[in-house]
Amino acid sequence: MDLSLSTRTVGDRTIVEVGGEIDVYTAPKLREQLVELVNDGSYHLVVDMEGVDFLDSTGLGVLVGGLKRVRAHEGSLRLVCNQERILKIFRITGLTKVFPIHQSVDEAVAATD
Question: STAS domain location, by residue (predicted)?
Answer without folding.
Answer: 3-112
